Amino acid sequence: MKKISLIILIVFIGFIIAAMTYNFWPSSPVSNSVINTSTPAVTNLPANAPIVNKPTTKPPVNNSTPSSTSKPTPVNATPTLSAAQVATHNQPNDCYLIVNNKVYDVTTYIGRHPGGKKSIYDRCGQESSAIFAAIHSNSAWNLLNKYYVADLSK
Ligand code: HEM
User: Fold this and answer.
1) Whose CB has fewer CB within 10 Å in the chain, the N or C terminal residue?
2) Higher pLDDT, 62 or 108
C-alpha cells in the first residue's frame, strides 16, 4: 500500500514538472521564458526603435456637413418674461415685480420687508419702477438684485 502511494506521488510530481516545462501551467515563470523569447519586452527597446504593429486603419472621417438650417443652441441665454406672464405672479405666495424692465421674484422677501407686507402685496405682478425708485435707498436696490429672475421681453 505504501509503495502504491509513493508511486502515485512520484507520478504526480513528474506531471507537475512536465506541465511547467511545456507551458501547460498558465502562469509558470518557466513557460514565459521559454515561449516569449521571440518577443523582446517593451521596456528593453532602444528609444529610437521603430514602432512595430502600427495600426494601419485610419480613424473614420466625418464627411457629413453640418446642416445649414440648424442653429447653435444658445447657452446661458438671458431668460425673458412678458408683462402678461409676470401678471400671473400676483399672489402673496407667488409675487413678481417689474422694476426697470427686469423681473424680480420677491415672494420670499415679503415677510422681511421693512416697509411692511402690504406695500409689496399690492403690487405683485405689476410694473413698480417709479414707486420703488421713489422710496428706496441704494442698499434696497442692491437687495433687489438678489431676487432677479428674468429680463422683461419687449
Ligand atoms: C414695489 C413694492 C414696494 C413698495 C411699495 C415698497 C415700499 C416701501 C416703504 C413704504 C418702505 C418704508 C420706507 C421708510 O419708512 O423709510 C420701504 C422700505 C424698504 N424697502 Fe421697500 N417697497 C417695495 C418693494 C421692496 C423690495 C422688492 C425690496 C427688496 C427686495 C424692498 C426693500 C426695502 C428696504 C431695504 C427698505 C428699508 C429702507 C431702505 O433701505 O430703502 N422694498 N419700502
Assistant:
1) N
2) 108
**How far is the centre of ligand 1, averaged over its atoms, from the C-alpha of 108 (Å)?**
14
Q: Is 102 in the pocket of ligand 1 (CB under 6 A)?
A: no
Q: Which amino acid is at 38?
A: S
pLDDT in tens, 93-148: 999 999 999 999 999 999 999 999 999 999 999 999 999 999 999 999 999 999 99
Q: What is the pTM of this model?
A: 0.62
CATH 3.10.120.10 fits 80-152, yes or no: yes
| CA pair distance 66, 82, nearest whole angstrom | 34
Residues of the chain with CATH 3.10.120.10: 80-152
Cβ(135) – ligand 1 distance below 6 Å: yes
